[in-house]
Specification:
alpha/beta; ABC_transporter-like_ATP-bd; binds adenosine-5'-triphosphate; cell membrane; 11 strands; ATP hydrolysis activity; single chain; 11-stranded mixed sheet; nucleotide-binding
Length: 231
C-alpha cells in the first residue's frame, strides 16, 4: 500500500492536497483536466518535488525523506525514457546497475527481458533505430529489470497509435500488475483506465480524490469527472 498522508504540494499559485491510499499490486489511473496536477502529484511520490506538508508512506515506511534513487520506484515519462547515445542493451542494463559495464550474466538477463517484450536481437541498436512502439517496449524492459515494486507512468504511451498503445497497456497489466507491482498511471483517455485500471483517482479542483473502482466510477461519475468527460 502506498499512502499519502495530509500531503500538500505547492508551486507559486498552484496547490494540491492528497489524502489517499493506493492498493498494492493494483493499477490505479489518475485522470483529470490539464493543469490539475497529475504530473505534480507523481513528481512528489517519486521524490522530485518536496511537499509543503505531509508524508508519503510505502509498505508502512515513511519514504518522504528519501531521494528519488533511494525510493522503491520506477518511472516512465512521455519522452526521454532512453538515452539516445546508448545502445538498447546499455539503456535496459541501467535497470540492473548504474554503470554501463555488464557481466555476461547481466547481458543474458538483458537479452532475456528484451526477448520477452518482443525486441529479440535489437540490443545493439541505438534508440533512434527503433520505432516509437519499440522504444516504448525498451523503456518498459528497463522497468521490468529494475524490479522496483512501485511503477509510475506519466502517459508514456500517449504518442503511440491506438493499437500500439493498447498493446503497451496490456503489457503493463501482464508484466507489471499481474506480477504484483503497484502501478499508478496518468491518462487523459478514459478508455485507457477502463482497459487496465482497477481503480481511478480523479485529480481536479486542487485535490487528488481517493481511488474508486473503475467501473463504478464511470457508471456514476462525480461532478469533476463528469465535467471532464463533457457529460
Ligand atoms: N516547475 C513548476 N513551477 C511552477 N509551476 C509549475 C511547475 N510545474 C507545474 N506547474 C504548475 O502546476 C500545475 C499542475 O501542473 P501539472 O503538470 O502537474 O498538471 P497535469 O494535470 O499533469 O497537466 P497535463 O494533463 O496538462 O499534463 C499547473 O498549473 C502548472 O502550471
Amino acid at each position: 500500500m502506498l499512502r499519502c498522508e495530509k500531503l500538500q504540494l505547492r508551486y507559486d499559485d498552484f496547490s494540491l492536497a492528497a489524502e489517499l491510499g493506493f492498493a498494492a499490486g493494483r493499477i490505479t489511473a489518475l485522470i483529470g483536466p490539464s493543469g490539475a496536477g497529475k504530473s505534480t502529484f507523481l513528481a512528489a511520490i517519486a521524490g522530485f518535488l518536496v511537499p509543503a506538508k505531509g508524508r508519503v508512506i510505502w509498505a508502512a515506511q515513511d519514504i518522504s525523506a528519501l531521494s528519488p534513487a533511494e525510493r522503491p520506484i520506477s518511472i516512465l515519462f512521455q519522452d526521454n525514457n532512453l538515452f539516445p547515445h546508448l545502445t538498447i542493451t546499455q539503456n535496459v542494463g541501467l535497470g540492473l546497475r548504474s554503470g554501463l559495464r555488464l557481466t555476461a550474466d547481466q547481458r543474458a538477463q538483458v537479452a532475456a527481458v528484451l526477448d520477452s517484450v518482443g525486441l529479440a536481437g535489437m540490443g545493439a541498436r541505438k534508440p533512434a533505430a527503433l520505432s516509437g512502439g519499440q522504444q516504448s517496449r525498451a523503456a518498459l524492459a528497463r522497468v521490468l529489470l529494475a524490479d522496483r515494486p512501485l511503477v509510475l507512468l506519466d502517459e508514456p504511451f500517449a504518442a503511440l497509435g491506438p493499437r500500439l498503445k493498447d498493446e503497451m497497456l496490456d503489457l503493463v497489466q501482464q508484466r507489471l500488475a499481474d506480477q504484483g507491482r503497484t502501478v499508478i498511471m496518468v491518462t487523459h483517455d478514459p478508455a485507457d483506465a477502463k482497459r487496465i485500471a482497477d481503480a481511478v483517482a480523479v485529480v481536479a479542483d486542487g485535490t487528488v480524490a481517493a481511488p474508486v473502482a473503475t467501473r463504478a466510477l464511470f457508471e456514476n461519475p462525480p461532478p469533476a469527472l463528469a465535467r471532464y468527460l463533457g457529460k
